[in-house]
Amino acid sequence: MVKPQLLSGPAHGPYLVLAHGAGSGMDSPIMTALAGALAGHGIAVARFEFAYMAARRQGGKRAPPPPIARLEDEYRAFLAQFAPGVAAIGGKSLGGRVASRIVDGLRQGDAGPGLVCLSYPFHPRGRLQGLRSVHLERMVAPTLIVQGERDPFGTRGEVEAMSLSPRISLHWLADGDHAFKPRKSSGASLAGNIAAAASAIAGFMTRLQSRV
Fold it and tell me: 95: helix, coil or strand?
């Protein structure tokens, strides 16, 4: 199956490949806004959808995501059409979690893609049990996690108390929730947070390319 995809930025990579979150597709407002902001930094972005989300788009029932191992296989299959033109992989929430589980296996020594996670789901909403971060303690790939400070799947206080690999950098968005949106009372704005996220990712991508 050819997966639905959206390409933005320079016509030819190297690409940042991004998968969507569990409940919204590759053209969600936040992914669209971020891809546009990254294009302004000269970053080529390839967004794609897992099969369960593509089925929803074609009028199928609103099924939940399949087991994560199946999503990992789908992600690898999508990447095969871009190799070796991929500088980093990642995604929003679930998409970033899937990418984080396969990225080290795509590397050969110091070579291979980096990882960009947007709103990483460190734990289920409201529950610190069932952490989804154990593999992040031993991450080898250079990694950037862009997270809202009050994301219910991993607040700043919760995440900064975790033992994560030194290969992981965290960029916090002011008062942001899981969609990067701050409260009006904070004085921050969604547009400002998206711009800050794009700037952080662009800097990370530049550092990745300097290592090539």
Answer: helix
The CATH class given to the 5-210 domain equals alpha beta
Rg of the Cα atoms in the chain: 16
Residue 127, burial from CB neighbour count under 10 angstroms (0-12, 13-18, 19+): exposed
With 80 as the cut, is the pLDDT of residue 137 above it?
yes
Classify the C-alpha dihedral 144-149-151-152 as positive or negative.
positive
Report the candidate in 112, 149, 113, 115 with the shortest Cα–Cα distance to residue 135.
Answer: 115
Residue 60 has pLDDT above 70, yes or no: no
pTM: predicted TM-score of the whole model, two decimal places = 0.94
Domain boundaries, the chain: 5-210
- Using an 8 Å Cβ cutoff, are 38 and 202 in contact? yes
The backbone torsions φ and ψ at residue 164, rounded to the nearest 5 degrees and listed phi first, read -110, 160
Percent of residues in the chain assigned helix, strand, coil, to nearest 5 = 35, 20, 45
Q: 86 - beta bridge partners?
A: 15
